[in-house]
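User: Here's a protein and a ligand (protoporphyrin IX containing FE). What would the complex look like?
Assistant: Let me lay out the input and then the predicted complex.
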Amino acid sequence: MATFAIPRISRRALYALSGATALVSGTYVYSHYGKRPQGNGPNGGKMMAAAAIANTPFHAEKVSHVEGDYQKIYNAIAEAIRDNDEYDDYIGWGPVLVRYAWHSSGTYAQASSGCPHATGGSFGGTIRWPKELGDGANNGLQNAEWFMKKIHDKFDWISWGDLVTLGGVTAIQEMGGPKIGWRAGRKELSADNAMTSRLPDASKDADYVRHLFARMGFEDREVVSLIGAHALGSCHVYAPLLPGQKKPIPGSGYTNRWTASPNYFTNEFFKLLVDDKSWHWKEWDGPKQWENKDGLMMLPTDMALVQDPKYKKIVEMYAKDQDLFFKDFAKDFQKLLELGIEYPKETKTFYFKTLDEQNI
Ligand code: HEM
């Protein structure tokens, strides 16, 4: 596909220009991700074309439900996490729900000269489509979908994109993390919008990580704060078995936890990267990963955060100051969950109460 440079031009003029281009170029928009009918976008037809060069092509709807309705869903997710704490050797469901929210959002690609309209992200809830969930990078997230389907059965009015992202916010807060602002209004997109091959490969180095997150519009400090979520959860050769499941499904192939408190949100991941002197390559016939004297783990992309001097400064900052990490993470995680989405002006940001705060 031909590349073009965008001259300095007002946003309004740019929209008009792209609308006109769409009119002469027929019913399809082309990109290096393939041919897609224009009407497939959230707004279809002309609006989709008009937003084609913007980084926020997905227009959230004005929702009729109020904060209390979403707090009910928050509570249902939080209670299901609390009441099923035996999952994954008593780590519980929190971490996999955080990963599910991140993987639904991390498919986002900004507009670029190669692809003049942004694509992907959490908006359309496309992670539920078999094509996207079946992407190798999503191995194990079938369990998160199983969990969330039961919530959706009770609250079928919520869009899948809203539900998946609300699950991530709930899990972070219930595991002792910061309050995350959250906005409603994502809409279902068809299976044609499913994205694959866009999530990071853990075997790579700092340059790769920097480039991959730049595609989503993140800078170094945001990248480091987001990967701090690896304080939570564990890697799996096989995903934990669900009730009644006989045959395990594959996980990422990596193994073990990053920290000693995998269901409590802390800056421990950064402390281990800075302070632990016992990191060495794990001797096993699985993929290359780091191990310390206590059997905790780091992925190659995690260790890249202290191998790269710019990333390392940020890691050291967060290792010293958990409050700063929490403050940054809250902002960056909300940004991640809203990539590509434009909200109506009047949309409220909700901050949900934890079960503890409600004495539930
Ligand atoms: C370079 C970027 C990243 C890479 C290569 C990466 C890779 C991985 C891998 C390989 C796993 C293990 C999955 C399994 O075997 O179950 C994992 C788990 C996890 N990741 Fe990441 N990740 C990255 C960034 C992030 C970000 C930005 C977040 C959230 C903001 C995140 C949150 C998590 C969580 C919470 C888990 C634990 C899931 C569980 O316990 O089931 N990761 N990640």
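Summary: Residues 95-96, 98-99, 102, 140, 200, 202, 209, 226-227, 229-230, 232-236, 251-252, 254, 299, 301, 333 surround protoporphyrin IX containing FE (CB under 6 Å).
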